[in-house]
């Protein structure tokens, strides 16, 4: 099985998903993962597509562009070289929330701080609403990094930038928003591998 | 990706509305420590507490760091000492109390509960001796808390014990006169005491519990108040009381879930059992962290006005419903505390004359606690204090629910004077007792008020 990563961007219109997935289907591809969003009227989709035999990425790109001509799609197709393997094995997923005054470079600075600490951002949504800035991200902390340390570090860093930064384990959000039973250990490590039982 | 609204709602509970885990209380069974030799008994108690609670502070800090939810207090509750130290004289009991006090300090907990006797149907010599030792214990230790269960629906009410406790309160208050009788704030007199209550001062490690257990007391008045306030402020039309109850229920769900998560993790890290989450809304003297303010945002602007009892009943029930869906491990008192001196809004209502002792007693018929942290005149006679206790215990015993009394006769001060206990214990104007002195003969009859009939309930 040969896997390719396809990204498509365009002004949002009805029918783009139908067009893109139709092109893939016609070429014999099977979509194994897909994520799509619309931001300020712009449509973006990223797909992982599997084919039984190797294909020419440029050929697939051309098919998608041609079929979606009326949408003026911007398309890229890359061979999947196995980067999906978890870059931070064993880490826990945390939710980072940043609230405060908007200023240019906010995300750049916060992302830099996280990169320095080895924190891997896996999902991020940020929005400026007039002078107000709001950012919510999901990130994996490396096993050696204590959440309290990162929290203290980011709180101080945020205060210097005039922003409030909160670092909370995802289990808090799962517990308060979902009716499923509370379990100790992260949802990613349901056995609670980081829980040390001394007796 | 989590919904932004969900993330901000949960974050707001911690960030703006003071959600915390009020107490992690480790319950430890001490019955195996019993010994005819006092030194051996004390040594065994210390060793056992160090064994189980030695890492409690460290683990709570780890879990607090992991989740970013403050754990405000760490506490220990032990088996009722009247049983553990049976056979020892007053000096022996004092030695045990001092051991508990010192060991609690050593492991970094602020209170240790369980200097307790359960005398609802009658008392042993050891239990009577323990009650008699209370003034000395409560006035000479820092962290030791006590409770006495004087009535149950199954057994009736032990009026001999209640009469003695009237004198105990007077003596304890006098011995802690310089602190407005604060020693009495460490003594809770129960009817139908739960055996898994993690809230001080009434906590003890009850019968039927394992060797060691972690119980959780959550906070949350601020969170519930904010939720009701938002609902009332943002609704297109005035929300009905049913809609307010739904809002409280869903907030109680969230609060309880946080408590259970933290409790389970602390228990797992210590390798001990997880017990229960007590859903009680426990106020602090801080503005914004008050049960009274919840009633105010529900529309009872003057606490003590007609409607206060109904509003409290709605609140209490909605908290229980939300919590019981959130967790199968709910216990303790689980309701709204109306601890007057600890609740700024209730204390203000007392100061302006809106909230009276009679109204507070009526309100306790629908909440889980009772006459809690109430300062009364220092010259109140012991029989009147006992009668006050008997009234409150009777409400619980007849209605198949827990009630409790924590009253402080403030030496040298009268109605309208200010009693100041400090810290989380707060302050309040001293409430007058209507017709004080009028029930001495009733109390002096002694004996036991029989258990109520369980059928024909009306």
Q: How many H/I helical runs of chain A?
A: 5
Largest sheet of chain A: 4 strands, antiparallel
Shape of chain A: globular
Average per-residue pLDDT of chain A, rounded, comes to 86
Would you identify the regions of chain B where 5 or more consecutive residues have pLDDT less than 50? none
Radius of gyration of chain B, whole Å: 21 Å
Helix content of chain B: 40-55%
Q: Which structural category fits the helices and strands of chain B?
A: alpha/beta
Strand content of chain B: 15-25%
**Which structural category fits the helices and strands of chain A?**
alpha+beta
Give the biggest beta sheet of chain B. Answer: 12 strands, mixed
Low-confidence residue ranges of chain A: 186-199
Approximate shape of chain B: globular
Oligomer: heterodimer
Descriptive labels:
heterodimer; A: alpha+beta; four-stranded antiparallel beta sheet; 28% helix; B: 458 residues; alpha/beta; twelve-stranded mixed beta sheet; 15 helices; 14 strands; globular
Could you please describe the fold and organization of this structure?
- The complex is a heterodimer of chains A (199) and B (458).
- Chain A is α+β, with helices and mostly antiparallel strands and 199 residues long.
- Chain A has helices at residues 16-26, 57-67, 106-116, 147-161, 170-177; strands at residues 2-11, 30-39, 42-51, 74-79, 92-101, 120-129, 132-141, 163-169.
- In chain A, the strands form two sheets. Chain A has a four-stranded antiparallel sheet, covered by helices on one side.
- Chain A is globular, with a radius of gyration of 21 Å.
- With 458 residues, chain B is an alpha/beta fold.
- Chain B has helices at residues 4-15, 38-53, 56-67, 81-84, 90-107, 125-140, 159-175, 221-234, 241-270, 291-297, 308-326, 344-351, 357-364, 382-398, 440-444, and strands at residues 21-28, 71-78, 111-118, 144-152, 156-158, 187-191, 212-218, 273-278, 330-331, 370-377, 403-410, 418-420, 427-429, 448-449.
- In chain B, strand 12 and strand 13 (427-429) form a beta hairpin.
- In chain B, helix 8 packs parallel to helix 10 (291-297).
- The longest helix of chain B has 30 residues, at 241-270.
- Chain B starts with a helix and ends in a 9-residue tail after the last strand.
- At the A-B interface, strand 7, helix 4, strand 8 and helix 5 of A face helix 1, helix 3 and helix 9 of B.
